Amino acid sequence: xxxxxERPKQQPVLERALAxxxxxxxxxxxxLECDDGSRLRVLYPGRASASAxxxxxxxxxxxxxxxxxxxxxxxxxxxDGWEAHGHGGDxxxxxxxxxxxxxxxxxxxxxxxxxxxxxxxxxxxxLGRRRRRDTPPPPRPLPLAALPSSADxxxxxxxxxGDARFFEKVRAFIQELQAHPDPSEALYRGxxxxxxxxxNSPAMTRLADGLSLPALVRALRxxxxxxxxxxxxxxxxxxxxxxxxxxxxxxxxxxxxxxxWKLFRVRPSNHPSRRLEGMAALLxxxxxxxxxxxxxxxxxxxxxxxxxxxxxxxxxxxxxxxGADRASDLAVNVLLPFVRAWGNRNREMELAAAAVALYRxxxxxxxxxxxxxxxxxxxxxxxxxxxxxxxxxxxxxxVYRRRLRGEAA
Length: 409
Description:
By secondary structure, this protein is of the alpha+beta class. The protein contains 14 helices and 11 strands. Strands 1, 2, 3, 4, 5, 6 and 9 form a 7-stranded mixed sheet that branches. Strands 7-8 form a two-stranded antiparallel sheet. The chain has a two-stranded antiparallel sheet with strand order 10-11. α7 runs antiparallel to α8 and α11 runs antiparallel to α12. It is globular and about 65 Å long. The chain starts with 10 loop residues before the first helix and ends in a 5-residue tail after the last helix.
């Protein structure tokens, strides 16, 4: 018997096309007429997101009176897509400030927080309306002043902004060191947060708060050194709520549950359970010396490769638990700012200076959605070579985020 092949569903294709249209042309649309009677001009359609939550993050909109609205945007083909997809009960969508639909139905959407967000219908009211010839063109995406066109001036701008971002992190660690008498505790919280890939940074930090270093030390009392790494991994996984039946019983009480983690579209290599096993290996390496002193010793060696290799971890089977790229991210965003802060506090000026020198010498980090979007929006081409260092990448991120807040750079 012949089987007629069913037609593939068109909705995912249409949704992708709608998202692409919003990304490329959202800022060129006439003011959007919302169901609550307001009109919103799109200054910046937002950064496309592939993780759990709204389609576009950090959009910048403007009301008729000039008030600027910042937040997330969710797209659907029809108004009822909001309820059909269960967004109203999902806290990930609490940042939505605008619901955009292609056609069909109006009415504000209700967020899990209880707040309402307006809905704007693109077609036929907006897309079908032709702009009068005398209507001025819409502003560029974001009120972006042009960055310096000179290669040298642009490089200096990004270096300056990159240093500012680094020292913002240093100041945050100075506050952490004031809050935690044990400096290793501050670094432990920082590394845990840095391992929270795919929106899991808050959960990692909560886990670090709920299972402190002293608690881990108590849980591992009497464990032989050769079994310490696996015992640390078991304790972290048990506390995280991610332990499976294959793991040995934990020595600690669960702090979180599986529902506290964002696992949607997280690749197996970035799963929080693998990152926690990597954290266990780092704690095992630094166990005798102490995490803070161990980090300082890596910096004193004065080698980018030495710091990166010190943070990289492979499993017993040979797979990467913390690969070289993630290790570099941890170094630039966590370890080096921490060591700078700790060196300042202890008046170890050579150590503090070494941390800054390594940061400024660090090569380009792996690109991510934020750096790629920042380069696109700010008009910095790849071939100009301005992002070929971690410092300039950090500067690019800082300029982008300041512009999102309406600040001049």
